[in-house]
From TrEMBL:
Gene3D superfamilies: Cadherins. The keyword Transmembrane helix applies. SUPFAM superfamilies: Cadherin-like (SSF49313). Keywords: Calcium, Cell adhesion, Cell membrane, Glycoprotein, Membrane, Repeat, Signal, Transmembrane, Transmembrane helix. This is Cadherin domain-containing protein. It comes from Astyanax mexicanus. InterPro entries: Cadherin-like_dom, Cadherin-like_sf, Cadherin_CS, Protocadherin/Cadherin-CA. It is a single-pass type I membrane protein. One of its GO terms (biological process) is anatomical structure morphogenesis. GO terms for cellular component: plasma membrane.
Amino acid sequence: MVFIDESVVAGSRFSLDSAHDPDVGKNSLQRYTLSPTDHFTLNELSNSDGTKYVQMILQTPLDREQQEKHTLILTAFDEGNPQKSGTIKITVVVIDANDNAPVFSQPVYRVSLPENAQMGSTAVTVSATDKDKGPNGEVIYSFPQNNRKIMELFTIEPSTGDIRVNGLLDYEKSKQYELHIEATDKGGLTDNSKVLVEITDVNDNAPVISVISFSNPIPEDSAPETVIAMLNIKDIDSGKNGQIRCSVDSDLPFRIKFSSSNFYISPILKLRTSACSSCFDL
């Protein structure tokens, strides 16, 4: 059995054990052959006493990822009559070299998370494969850029590629995050990818009412449609979660109108005061 590193260059030589033939002259060992010859050729040499020995020469590079073992047959011949020969099987085991970098399954990963995603929950699992064997094929995942904001919100499990929520997400602060990720084998070769995290809105904000102006007291002869208060109401949620509907108690003689940016409160009818209706709570 011969062990050869796959990084060995073409032209490298490997000595083989010589055959032994006790006969003399033409009846002794005369030549060798090797088959198959896809990767190796033979170089026959002679010692000073006339005995022959052989070297195996690598003519095309080996690739463990394509073929880990090669079985060769070395045959020794004499030139007697009848001709006799002997054979031996040579197993070439290709030793892995770190000649393959990890490769991510996707150049870009996309994931959507609600802004109330629980801390510790898995956002996405990234995966990279390495064709090498043993430590050369073991992959470690990491965030290559020391981005404090990203590292406060997300973590990555080095051995599995699980990316987990590590902080409080807030759609109103950031709607998307771009995470750069790196896979490194134990020989130092790397590949890079990125994860685009889209944050979806949750109805986690109540409307906020601000009184811009307010007339108080109100003259009892105030005409209908007289503006007695102007309000600004905001909800920082998005979509339907941020849409506002504003109303006053139907028993009160007021109504609310909406303009492009504010709400207005005005009487529906001309006001008349009495002992029990001189004050209104809006």
